[in-house]
Amino acid sequence: MRFRPLLKVRLVRLLIALPGLFAPGLDLAAQPSAPARERVVIPFHGDPRVRSERPEGPIPRNLRVITDDEFPPLHFADPDGQPVGFSVDLMRAVCERMSVNCTIQVRRLDTLLQTLVEGQADVVAAAMPVTAQIKARFHVSRVYHRLPARFVAPASFDVARLGTGLTGAKVAVPRETAHAAFLADHFPGAARTETLDLDSALLMLERGEVDAVFGDGQAAALWLGARGRGGFRFAGGPYLSVPHFGEGIGFVLRPDEPFLKRSVDYALQTLWDDGTYARLFLRYFPVSPF
Q1: Buried residues in 51-81 as b, exposed as e (16+ CB within 10 A)
Q2: 174 with 77: CB under 8 angstroms?
Q3: Out of 8-22, 51-65, 89-103, least confident range
Q4: How many C-beta atoms lie closer than 10 Å to residue 45's C-beta?
Q5: CATH classification number, 149-242, choose in 3.40.50.300, 3.40.605.10, 3.40.190.10, 3.30.530.20
Q6: Domain ranges of the chain
Q7: Which of 3, 149, 233, 250 could, after both became Cys, cross-link 8 (CB 3.0–4.6 A)?
Q8: What is the predicted pLDDT for the residue at 280?
């Protein structure tokens, strides 16, 4: 999803403050500001039994990385206009682990793949869901992030209602989205109210006009983290249906660089193993969408 300008400004202000609030290795469960005083769930995307071997071969000394700056918290501009975010900082960590220099440039999201095709960049580090079409044209790293769907409800919401299909429950969901399709497929008994966007659905929830909201868990997590909305929480989930929400997000690379792809995969594995991935995740997701 794309954020409206006002919501984007609010989220960027929130995220700018996070590095000082959430230091590396901090246990979020111990912080009184944590919305439900629960531990942040840091997901592992993949089969833990599958291990990459350290590849042997030449790695480019400089990697040209491109991203977009309008999708917090994965990629956005800091107060100095520099690209930051979970995807961007994770790619920086990958470059450091591979002992290569990275230059990161901002382009429009709809131009990133073409820039790669034209040979003007080596890696796309942006929220570009992995699809069969992309995998047919490019190398894609192992998935490092997914966009789960979640229910958001008042703290008093009876989670047991999810097990009965939410029959009769009033649920707001953004119209013409994968979330609306999933809700119709799996909770047909819910009384759906389709809204213009997630902002509108969450506003209905705050006003008490619906029992729950169903939508993008990442944006909802930021909403829950903003201004200490302690009266609301995630209910059930996360929902990670591949047919509805895709395989996830990986770094996209040119098809003529198979060794670079293996090197990036191995670097991602080591960043997970030594806790770097977790520290970056905590920085940008103080309320986990998982």
Answers
A1: eeeebeeeeeeebbbbbbbbbbbbbbbeeee
A2: no
A3: 8-22
A4: 17
A5: 3.40.190.10
A6: 5-146+247-284, 149-242
A7: 3
A8: 96
Dmax (CA) for the chain in angstroms is 60
* Mean pLDDT within 207-232: 90
Q: Which of 240, 244, 247 has its CA nearest to residue 182?
A: 244
pTM (two decimals): 0.82
What is the CATH number assigned to the segment(s) 5-146+247-284?
3.40.190.10
- Distance set, CA 76 to CA 6, 15, 81, 112 (Å): 14, 10, 9, 15
Question: What would the two tokens of residue 28 be?
Answer: 């979020």
Residue bearing tokens 């509805």: 244
Contact 151, 162 (CB under 8 A): yes
On whether the CB atoms of residues 170 and 211 are closer than 8 A, the answer is: yes
Amino acid identity for residue 195 in this structure: T
* Predicted local distance difference test score (pLDDT) of residue 48: 75
Report phi then psi at 163, rounded to 5. -70, -20
CA distance 51 to 20: 34
Tell me what percent of the chain is helix, strand and coil, each rounded to the nearest 5: 40, 20, 40
Phi, psi at 193, each rounded to 5°: -120, 115
Q: Yes or no: say if 42 and 281 are a contact pair by the CB < 8 Å rule.
A: yes
Is residue 213 within 8 Å of residue 160, measured between CB atoms? no
Q: How far is it, in rounded angstroms, from Cα 269 to Cα 271?
A: 5
